[in-house]
Specification:
Layout: H1 8-26, H2 30-36, H3 42-51, H4 56-67, H5 87-96, H6 109-127, H7 130-139, H8 141-148, H9 166-185
Helix pairs in contact: 3-6, 4-9, 6-7, 7-8, 7-9
Amino acid sequence: MKKIGSSIKPFFIFTVFIFAVLLLALFSGKTVLKALYPVKYESIVEKYSSEYNIDKTLILAIIKTESSFEPSSVSDAGAMGLMQIMPDTHEWLSGKLHRSEDVSVLFDPDTGIEYGTYLLRILLNEFHNIETAIAAYHAGIGRVNEWLSDERYSSDGVTLDVIPFKDTAHYVNKVTRAVRIYENLY
């Protein structure tokens, strides 16, 4: 004698399979990537991209990597906002911008993106190399200057041949991959 529920299980599995195939077809290729690599705060990103002459795909890649577009994000180390600025870096940048604002302004998307983009401009001016600037965004200017002066990490004192910190090397790879994805998608 056949049990009543025995034919339901294969039907359920088949239905789930068909549903999954339809979802894949619906959200294939660029649609999936656009969901994973969104463009948010576009007008703010474009504003500071233009003001500080930074490619908007780099700004978007940093935001995606740092906070996944969550303005209230705080890292374990204490970095804050969309572009994950440390409080001491905020203080330094505030002085350069002739402002005296509480660190909590980093949670405001406009201010957080401005500070992060301004920092990127400083780093690009200092290092003249995108990957080195990205490494400095993650590890700090002083540390990157130490690496550049060490022949084990830089053969020319300008470009990093090796990034000795695994986390920073991973970060640079993640950001540069995101830049390429943003360039191809948008």
